[in-house]
């Protein structure tokens, strides 16, 4: 039988298993390479990635490519069906790390604030002004006396930094300060929700920003999008800045999940099983059979057999594992 893994609480602070710096798998799963060299998720903890780059097996088993099973090397007569991988999802922290404990949203720049804390300038590769509160676009110089950014004869208002977000391990703590786009998506604090060409939500790394009609760019508050020249124009016409490209939203929850109740979930290739009367766990089989001991589960088409401590189907049996 397969081992259950604890269900995941529906919170934006969910832990993930990073595959690299840009994609991750859900907690309790394993990163495995695909045939294309990209990453996929095996819905098992500490899984064995099979050489066909399509399937995976539980820990301490061997992939049997010919039979399409996972075999116990200690007893080759014992096997379980192997698992299909599922897609990864973008990792929340494609963020800019300021240090080991703080980060800024992607497309922004880490700058020191006056008290010595980190702040986020809502511009990529920005120039951090010495006053500790403001910043300018790349290639511009801060003019503290005029509170502006200048480049040759071109002068624009400078930007105000936003406070950086706290990191916990490999995750960013998102909470009530996030900007909610709808019931399932959000943008980081200090940014604005704007629609993308696909109809999904994107994040403009500016406070109370203006969303441009092309659904790809945005401008600071008080500016107008000039799509022809790719700039943001102040109402007076004297100031212009480059358009800011939208980013995808920061919600990293997989799109398809199995909801156990209102507050817990399992991966789409798993099944919800009770770990106790008040706690859910995830069985790493789709449409699984949950055993009465609340510790084990079996694949669909099998039944729990306490006498053999395994899953029985006709005359074939499989071993089970202890619950985590």
Automatic annotation (TrEMBL):
Keywords: Disulfide bond, Secreted. InterPro entries: Granulin, Granulin_fam, Granulin_sf. SUPFAM superfamilies: Granulin repeat. Residues 50-63, 129-142, 212-225, 291-304 form the Granulins domain. PANTHER family: GRANULIN, GRANULIN B. It comes from the Eukaryota. PROSITE patterns: GRANULINS (PS00799). It is found in: Secreted. The keyword Secreted applies. One of its GO terms (cellular component) is extracellular region. Belongs to the granulin family. This is Granulin b.
